[in-house]
Amino acid sequence: DIGDLFHTEEFAPRDAETCLWSCRNPAGLHVLFGSRNPENSKPISPENALTLSALVSELADYVVVDLPVSLAETNRAVIEGSDFWTLVVERDSISVQAAKLILHGVDSWNAARISMGVVLVNRSALVSPMPIAEIETQLSIPVLAVIPPAADLCASAQSAHVPDRKSTRLNSSH
Q1: Number of H helices, E strands in the chain
Q2: In whole angstroms, how far apart are CA 92 and each of 66, 67, 98, 115?
Q3: Do the Cβ atoms of 79 and 111 come closer than 8 Å?
Q4: DSSP H stretches of helix in 62-124
Q5: What are the tens digits of pLDDT across the range 61-111?
Q6: First CA to last CA across the chain, in angstroms?
């Protein structure tokens, strides 16, 4: 796991490769998850995060880095070093307001050149979810996909530390 990489002074590309989770569809997509073991989890410096990002970028066509919700310097380094940043947001007003605060913080960084989008997650069926158009208006970035309500699947994926890959792609005519 990723925590093992930072127990040594330097890590090699083959070490980083062992931390990537390969997806079959789309081909070339690899996911780098954080440490699953609390004892193995320690803060990663911005420099190490950039080094690791550069290494895994050479190993895969697409790299997804699962960052914790934070405006920490390490997250800043990874986001500023990215070509595309996706913010995962639940489809309720409190989550959208929290996303606005995160986006406001990111706007103060040197991240203006980065393309951004939102993936909406429905962990459970909401009586009246926020309309997608309203979320796009409030956040000023496009909604890329919506993960439909599937509380059991979301809970089991989260417990197992594996991604839930069912989603609904949006087209420009939503």
Answers
A1: 7, 7
A2: 21, 21, 10, 23
A3: yes
A4: 73-80, 93-107
A5: 777 777 888 899 989 998 888 889 899 999 999 999 999 999 999 888 876
A6: 39
Structure tokens at 108: 């103060």
Whole-angstrom Cα distance, residue 12 to residue 10? 7
Tell me the longest C-alpha to C-alpha distance in the chain.
Answer: 51
Distance CA 49, CA 163 (A): 21
3-state secondary structure of 70: coil
For tokens 């920490």, the residue is: 72
**Using an 8 Å Cβ cutoff, are 31 and 159 in contact?**
no
Pairing of strands 168-169, 62-65: unpaired
Q: In this structure, what token pair is assigned to residue 97? A: 């307001």
